[in-house]
Amino acid sequence: MPELPEVETTIRGLRPCLEGEVLTLVEPRRADLRRPIPADLRQRLTGARVIGLSRRAKYGLIHTDREDTLIFHLGMSGRWRIAPAQLDKHDHLIIETASGKRLVLNDPRRFGSLDLMPTVDVAAFDPFTRMGPEPLGDDFTPAVLAQALKGRVGPIKLLLLDQKVVAGLGNIYVCEALNMAGISPIRPGGNVSRAAINRLVPAIKQVLAAAIEAGGSTLRDYARPDGELGYFFKQWRVYGREGEPCVCGGTVQRRTDGGRSTFFCPACQK
DNA sequence: ATGTCCACCTGCTGGC
DNA sequence: TGCCAGCAGGTGGACA
Fold this sequence. Notes:
Layout: H1 4-18, E1 23-28, H2 41-45, E2 50-56, E3 59-64, E4 68-73, E5 79-82, E6 91-97, E7 102-106, E8 113-118, H3 126-129, H4 142-149, H5 156-161, H6 171-181, H7 194-222, E9 253-257, E10 260-264
Antiparallel strand pairs: 1-6, 2-3, 3-4, 4-8, 5-7, 6-7, 9-10
Helix pairs in contact: 1-7, 4-7, 6-7
The protein binds a DNA duplex through helix 6.
């Protein structure tokens, strides 16, 4: 579920449920996920009004009129469920609003996180202080990426997964963008030509934008009252397609880099 | 600073 | 049918 496009569509899906709403119940069901859940979360959020929701990289932010911001990360398996028929054992946070909306944060593997910061201090949230640019922002340009890759010897695939280089990409979209740009995942970062970087930056923006588009429709499915989980759209070119044809006519292969699967086409990715 | 390995956790699938 | 290895969209700490 959760790379940048999934977090973005999650935020868009949560907005109609939360924006302008007063939180009447905020109930953690356990003390920790990846990190401890702030002990004062319930006290600080109950009675507050949500004034806005936003996203930074793969983090979702829920801002309240008490000058607090709830920062959530979905890890590998996190998702929000809207108006669930009943609680699941991995529902770790329950939120209810004055108008009767009910949401739960579900995360079986518990690699996600919940943090609460004064809104004015959000930029100082530790993970944010080390992050590179938003890939969909105007300040993520070929020149900026070229500077970040300069002199780096690690494979480009792993560098794009490094949130300090660019913030929000995950395993799927890195594989997809490298295929779109015709760049080998194992090419050393500093060895990616400027022409290739000029293809890579728009490829990243394009694949993320297309995924957000698709994610929007899937989230509507996901929010259905019957709880139908039809949200796992796939129109990937290489990810999960080992042995299948690439658009170039080559065959998609799979390898392991940094302990994670890489899907790529050796015929067109150089 | 950079690169590499690994731990964190549950659930699912495929092979025997 | 059961068991077990392997794998899954992420992050960050330990170590060379």
